[in-house]
Amino acid sequence: MKHNSILTLIALMLAPLAALHATEQAQSWPKWQQSRVALDRHFAVEEFRIHFALTGTAALPVADQADSDHDGVPDKIQDIARQFVTARRCFVEVLGLRH
Prior knowledge:
Elements: H1 2-28, H2 31-34, E1 41-45, E2 48-52, H3 75-94
Antiparallel strand pairs: 1-2
C-alpha cells in the first residue's frame, strides 16, 4: 500500500512538468502545425482516422456537431469517413488501382 502511495505522489508531482513540456513542445512547432494540437478527438474507420475538435478555434461549426445516434461522434465526421471508405473502394475494387 505504501508503494502505491509513493508512486501516486510522484505522478502528481510530475504531471505539471509533463503538461509544461507538452505546451513548450507545441509552441516550438511550426505555425501550421500548432493548430493540430487542438484536434483532441479522432474517429477511426477501416484505415482512415479523422481528427477533429468540438471546442476551441479548430472546432467544428455548431451546425456540424449534431450527433443523431448519440455515440459521441458528430454525424458530419461519420459522413466524411463513409465518403473516404467509399472512394477507396471505388478506386481499388472498381477501377482496379493498387491500394
